[in-house]
Amino acid sequence: MNGMKFRVWLSESEVMIYPEDRGTPFVLSIEEGWVRRIDFDPKTQRYNLCSINEPYTILFSTMYQDRNGKEIFEGDIIKDTIYGDYYLIQFDPTKGFYGVQLPDFSEERSINYLAPRVIVVGNIKEHFEMFQTLKQKEIKNE
After folding, report:
1. What gap in Å lies between CA 57 and CA 73, rounded to an integer?
2. 8 Å CB contact between 88 and 97
3. How far apart, in whole angstroms, are the C-alpha atoms of residue 113 and residue 55?
4. Above 70 in pLDDT, residue 1?
5. What is the DSSP letter of 53?
6. What phi, psi does 132 have (nearest 5°)?
7. Cβ distance 57 to 70 under 8 Å?
8. CB 42 within 8 A of CB 90
9. From CA 99, how far away is CA 110, in angstroms rounded?
10. Would you give the DSSP letter of residue 3?
11. Cα–Cα distance measured from residue 63 to residue 71, given in angstroms and rounded to the nearest whole number
12. Which domains does the chain have, with CATH numbers?
């Protein structure tokens, strides 16, 4: 699957790895749902597929960019620069990529509709406290 971009969230380390940016070679198996790191063994002069030794989540690129040119990934929190609304980017095999309005999950929007007017402000994995803050503001306003 040429051109498929993804990132990997390492749950215990709380680190997001962008394979194409950091030069970290990874192999992804869509059918089997695993990611393996490619390591070079100088003793055998071979490349080996190594398991990632902690829980991880695979987050795919939407192949869209925000208005600043930053790539939008599954799990990103984006802000609509026109209306000020926040959305969490999700994927559903029947719908494709879409944004769910935060904090109350009241509305869904296609990423195709949102992308030209949003900016990425974080992601649900690295910035969970931002997501929680949005939820708390809504509760206080009621």
Report:
1. 13
2. no
3. 33
4. no
5. S
6. -65, -40
7. no
8. no
9. 6
10. T
11. 7
12. 6-51 (no CATH), 63-141 (2.30.30.290)
Per DSSP, the three-state class of 15 is: strand
Q: Read out DSSP for 97-126?
A: EEEEEETT---EEEHHHHGGGEEEEEETTT
d(CA 76, CA 70): 11
Say what the pTM is: 0.76
114-128 pLDDT tens trace: 989 999 999 988 877
User: How close are the terminal C-alpha atoms of the chain, in Å?
Assistant: 47
pLDDT (average), residues 72-83:
93
Closest-CA residue to 87 (of 131, 55, 128, 24):
131
Which of 34-43, 65-74, 100-109 tops mean pLDDT?
65-74
What's the whole-number average pLDDT of the chain? Answer: 80
DSSP string, 54-87: S-EEEEEEEEEE-TTSPEEETTEEEEETTT--EE
| pLDDT band per the 50, 70, 90 thresholds, residue 90 | very high
- Is the model's pLDDT at 11 over the cut of 90? no
- Closest by CA to 77, choosing from 21, 134, 141, 20, is 134
